[in-house]
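Bench notes, afternoon.
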Amino acid sequence: MTLAWTDRRRDRLLAVLAAAFGAGYITAARGIEDSLLSDAVGAGGVPQGVGVAMLLAALALFAKSFLGAPATQPPAEAEAEPWREAARRTGGLVLILLGYGLLLPWLGYPLTVSLLVLASGWLAGAPPKLPLLLCAAVCGPALWAMFDWALQVRMPAGSLWS
């Protein structure tokens, strides 16, 4: 007897793995020691929040896998196509992130983040029209302002401009 991998079973497996990773992430974040310069949140506050968000997303995915009508099992040859598309998008995202890392020192944070948002949105299927262009144009400067001005975390300006 073979166990058919339906979308529901895949979602449940992913949810369990994500929950385990999130729990490990929280545990590791709690081990981060605070320095004398730490604020009330501490050095591990944000990583713990990320771990909690991952746990909540895993719980939501697990619960979602039980809702709705069961899907019919696709033929075996039809299963290869979604995996190819996922591999293509994953490879594309890796290339985008490598480009981000290479361009960041030269172009600076605001422009590089805008390019990252633009390329990621296009890769995800958003058409290169006004909404995507506006989102990309706003995200880089807005995130730079949040980090640089509001949080006092200096972000690189880029060697091309200085």
